[in-house]
Amino acid sequence: MEQTLTIIKPDSMAAGNAGKILAHLEQEGFQILALRRIHLSEAQARSFYEVHKERPFYDDLVAYMTEAPVIAAALEREDAVAHLRRVMGATNPEEAAAGTIRALYGTSIERNAIHGSDSPENAAIETDFFFSRADLLPS
Ligand code: CMP
Q: Is residue 6 a part of any domain in this protein?
């Protein structure tokens, strides 16, 4: 089994799509290991997306990610990282395959409904950002 990290982004939360997105993920075979609603501070959003700090969209991305609460979830499934990326669809909702979460709920390349880790290594780093080891122990 593999783990990954998702964030249901502020646009999804504001539109009332969080429950539908979580249900979509469960239907795709993801088990929700840990779940957290959090309104990110500017410092937290800057830190989470530090890898993008040189990109022209970084400040806008930080403003967007701090405009409303998000839900972070640690997910488990076989091939979790790659499967979540398939289920999310392309970064730009206009290019995302029909039926993917970003095609269904995203509205722009920035406001794209959901985040998913891009590698198992980053999944571990991103999961550590939101959850403690105790949150992820088997029950
Ligand atoms: P995410 O997968 O969370 O990773 C980085 C985020 O930056 C991305 O989703 C989008 O929300 C945003 N992003 C990526 N590329 C662009 C872009 N070209 N313009 C604006 N925002 C972007």
A: yes
Q: Is the pLDDT at 93 greater than 80, yes or no?
A: yes
Domain count, the chain: 1
Residue 45 CA, distance from chain mean position? 13
CATH number, domain of 39, equals 3.30.70.141
Q: Hey, which of 112, 114, 118, 129 would you mutate to test ligand 1's pocket, going by the most ligand atoms within 8 Å of its Cβ?
A: 112
Quick check: is 24 in a domain?
Answer: yes
Position 139 pLDDT exceeds 90: no
Note down the domain range covering 35. 2-133
| pLDDT at site 138 | 81
d(CA 134, CA 44): 21
- Lining residues, ligand 1, CB within 6 Å: 52, 57, 61, 91, 109-110, 112, 115
35 closest CA partner among 7, 60, 56: 7
